Amino acid sequence: MNTLTESLEAYVRAMPKVELHVHLEGSIRPETLLELAARHRVELPARTVDELREWYAFRDFDHFVEVYLAAAGCIRTPADVERIAADFLEGQAAQNVLHSEVTYTASTQRMLSGIPLDDQLEAINRARAAAERDHGVTMSLTIDYPRHLDPDEFVGVAHWAVDNMERGVSALGLGGPEVGYPPELFERAFAVASEAGLPSVPHAGETEGAESIRGALRALDAVRIGHGVRCLEDPELVAELRDRQIPLEVCPTSNVCLGVAPSFGEHPLPRLLDTGLYVTLNSDDPPMFGTTLTDEYLKAAAAFGLGAGDVRDLVVRAAEATLLPPADKATLLERVRQGFEALPKSTPLS
Fold first, then answer.
1. What is this structure's pTM?
2. 327: how many CB neighbours lie within 10 A of its CB?
3. Helix (H), strand (E) at residue 97
4. Residues of the chain with pLDDT under 50
5. Of 18, 43, 162, 215, which residue has the fewest beta carbons closer than 10 angstroms?
6. Which of 19, 206, 208, 296 is catalytic?
7. CB 140, CB 170: distance < 8 Å
8. Domain range for residue 316?
């Protein structure tokens, strides 16, 4: 792993950013989780922030699911939903993340806490409006659904997502375990979205291989792929993704934690870039994987010798891959351009 120069590290920390793949429930700060657990008398295997951070630290997939569900189970009221969204957006603003397209599993929260879908969305939108007013950052939602739940119920969730396209919902997603749950099972829900013009951005090609990605493209009409790194196993699929310039939402630290890559230095990110694929960089479930979007850029620059021009290109590509309306996307791209223009000129672009 290379050592970053001080000027490149400062450049990465200060530069404008855009994030396309980050889970709201997977972004709960340990401090907030402890507070919510105490408020709702939820027993957690930790009593202090330090103990909670230790418990948060990724061990294996089963532990990750345990932490994720425990965190989601501490969200009991619309005010809790608003709090985690406000915390998340404050953290994004601190990293100069201008826009985030955030995955949110509203159906899980309804199942765990009984909070109606509309109440959850209203709470998130209160936080979203405050963050735009106070911090100048924006957010839209990808409403996803866990693969291991009932595909028929997902159809109803898809109709709800479509009904809220004017209230911050920008895409329909699909998460949860890929193995045993191919994209084709969920074709009806995504047909509802497609008919209404709501884009499809499922997870695929993370813990399953190329067929999962191909299914997402064929059956779900995906316009972006969550993860997608295992496309490299199939040269024909690589050629299709490259020719169609389908953006991949790549999350290196997450891939390492979940065993998709053996280490950060051995992550396929350079191969994805070298083959001409459309790559964006993202954090997935940042506190649970011990990372942030800024960290992902810093680690990628150090591991693969990326320069200022390389990281800038990744940010611009992420901005171009957003699902914002054309006028809003143009505004975002201009903000990104101005943000880079305002950075010190001492860092060489290559």
1. 0.95
2. 8
3. strand 97-104
4. none
5. 43
6. 206
7. yes
8. 6-21+88-341
Which one-letter DSSP state was computed for residue 307?
-
- Residue 57 resides in a domain: no
Amino acid at 251: C
> How far apart are the C-alpha atoms of 327 and 347, rounded to whole Å?
31
Residue 198 CA to its chain's centroid (Å): 18
**According to the model, what pLDDT value does residue 53 have?**
83
What does the block give as tokens for 335?
């903000």
pLDDT value at residue 158: 98
pLDDT for the residue 349: 65
**Residue 43 has what pLDDT?**
87
- Is 11 part of a structural domain of the chain? yes
Residues 6+ apart with CB under 8 A from 190: 158, 172, 174, 200, 202, 219, 220, 221
pLDDT value at position 1? Answer: 55
206 is catalytic: yes
* SS3 assignment, position 227: strand
Closest CA to 132 of 86, 165, 101: 86
What is the total count of domains within the chain? 1
DSSP-based helix, strand, coil % in the chain, nearest 5: 55, 10, 30
Q: Which two tokens stand for residue 93?
A: 């603003």
CATH of the domain at 99: 3.20.20.140
Dihedral sign for Cα atoms in the order 31, 286, 200, 203: negative
State the Cα–Cα distance between residues 110 and 72, nearest whole angstrom: 10
Report if residue 10 sits inside a domain: yes
Q: Is position 35 within any domain?
A: no
